[in-house]
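Example for tutorial group B:
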């Protein structure tokens, strides 16, 4: 749903109904080390309802689905039958490590390149709302010059509204025929913004991720955390007030691109392109995310 909130605001939610019974408490761990996997995504099989594990790998569902789908960056996803036991340990295996070759000389001096949103202030906001949906928003970053190098830093404009200090996850995806494809960042990068109403910078250089020739997607994934919930009130015509249960930080939007580069998904489902056109505005709205690249060629 779309609402005008001061500047431009977007409230997105999906209603979910599920015939489930009996609560479930379970833990997600590394299959080799048995160490907990924080912030793994856990959904029912249709992906209508989702949650994340906490810092110790535990999650809790008020009602038990027939099948669970569990995934985390750097691990092979797993689908399991939810047994009738009160607790369950779910083991995820790491994805095979793929080494990528960097094809430039080590003493070659790089050029810093900025891509994505560059403005200092947001023209609108995106709110992640609906307790049953875990949102993820991605921005397409084209590479028209076929630049070679590494991704140095990502930045997200975190607004003053919502819960700006709540953790979120940064993800990078291949550009697969114009939509997000496989992960290219095989680490779970969790960050918190200490300040708001400004850019939150996330260093990515230590992961040595090469710039994909066909461009790539960078995303912000909202996490299910107890401290991140809040109520957003929207004032409608006629003096009515609509209340929505929302979570986490509020992401700024920008109108500096001529085309729609915004993609979204909920609960790890299929990606869809967002409708970037906003009523009464002529320009496209896109997520306020930018990248710093070290370009060698």
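The residue assignment follows.
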């Amino acid at each position: 749903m779309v609402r005008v909130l001061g500047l431009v605001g977007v409230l997105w939610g999906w209603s979910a109904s599920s015939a489930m019974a009996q609560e479930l408490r379970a833990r997600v761990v590394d299959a080799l080390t048995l160490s907990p996997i924080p912030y793994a995504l856990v959904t029912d099989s249709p992906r209508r309802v989702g949650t994340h594990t906490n810092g110790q790998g535990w999650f809790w569902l008020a009602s038990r689905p027939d099948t669970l789908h569990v995934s985390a960056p750097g691990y092979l996803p797993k689908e399991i039958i939810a047994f009738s036991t009160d607790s369950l340990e779910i083991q995820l295996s790491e994805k095979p490590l793929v080494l990528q070759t960097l094809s430039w000389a080590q003493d070659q001096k790089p050029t810093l390149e900025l891509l994505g949103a560059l403005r200092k202030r947001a023209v609108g906001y995106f709110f992640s709302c609906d307790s049953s949906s875990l949102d993820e928003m991605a921005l397409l970053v084209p590479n028209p010059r076929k630049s070679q190098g590494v991704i140095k830093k990502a930045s997200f404009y975190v607004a003053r509204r919502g819960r700006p200090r709540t953790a979120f996850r940064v993800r990078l995806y291949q550009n697969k025929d114009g939509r997000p494809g496989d992960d290219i960042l095989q680490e779970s990068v969790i960050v918190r913004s200490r300040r708001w109403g400004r850019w939150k910078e996330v260093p990515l250089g230590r992961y040595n991720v090469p710039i994909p020739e066909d461009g790539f997607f960078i995303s912000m994934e909202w996490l299910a955390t107890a401290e991140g919930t809040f109520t957003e009130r929207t004032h409608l015509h006629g003096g009515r007030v609509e209340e929505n249960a929302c979570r986490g930080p509020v992401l700024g939007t920008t109108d500096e691109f001529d085309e729609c580069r915004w993609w979204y998904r909920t609960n790890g489902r299929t990606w869809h392109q967002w409708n970037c056109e906003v009523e009464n505005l002529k320009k496209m709205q896109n997520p306020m995310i930018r990248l710093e690249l070290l370009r060698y060629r």
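The CA atoms of residues 82 and 231 lie 32 Å apart. Compare this with the pattern of hydrophobic and polar residues in the output above.
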